[in-house]
Design goal:
By secondary structure, the chain is α+β, with helices and mostly antiparallel strands. The chain has six helices and seven strands; from the N terminus they run ααβαβαβαβαβββ.
């Protein structure tokens, strides 16, 4: 039997899976954001990721900060200099995009505000409507970037260079310091 247990950025399903009787028949797949949730000690976690039996990770993806084409943010410098909060959609508290927004806000520092409540592709639609300005997402899995609605050239690639984004700074090129700000090397 397949049972979908949504909610709280996969925390509810992960809790249920972790607390289930170990019968060899129960499996789960979760949002990578659970790693962040456990690291920061988020409330509501009843699982310990180190005590799951892991089969593997389904993919490896390049995470990219991308801004909507209708925003004033054309470069990472524009993002860093924003005085107004930059609204970033997320599916929910504890989700990967929510936690990555908080982490990136600390690391850059940038004036990001995580906005939960945008499940699935709703965040992209909200960017297109102008409700929110940007998102952190998988570059390889999002045709939205390639359809002219997002500006990955105005973003910070999460951790590595990509052949399609040679002019986009990545985290390894940035001197990240909450107190000292950011400089590009």
């Amino acid at each position: 039997m397949i049972k979908n247990v949504p909610g709280a950025g996969h925390i509810i399903g992960a809790n249920e899976t972790f607390l289930s009787k170990p019968d060899g028949l129960t499996m789960g797949t979760f949002n990578t954001g659970l790693i962040y949730s456990q690291l920061i000690g988020q409330a509501g976690l009843r699982f310990d990721l180190t005590k799951f039996s892991w089969v593997g990770k389904a993919n490896s993806e390049l995470r990219v900060l991308v801004m909507g084409v209708k925003t004033p943010f054309k470069t990472i410098k524009d993002v860093l200099e924003s005085k107004e909060p930059i609204k970033m959609p997320s599916s929910g508290v504890g989700s990967q995009d929510y936690n990555e927004t908080l982490i990136l806000a600390e690391a850059l520092p940038a004036n990001f505000k995580a906005m939960p409540g945008y499940a699935g592709r709703e965040g992209e639609m909200a960017i297109m409507r102008g409700e929110v300005q940007g998102t952190i997402a998988s570059y390889n899995r999002h045709p939205w970037f390639h359809q002219g609605e997002g500006v990955p050239s105005a973003s910070a690639v999460w951790c590595q260079e990509h052949r399609d984004l040679p002019d986009v700074p990545h985290a390894n090129e940035m001197n990240l310091s909450r107190k000292g700000g950011v400089s590009l090397t």
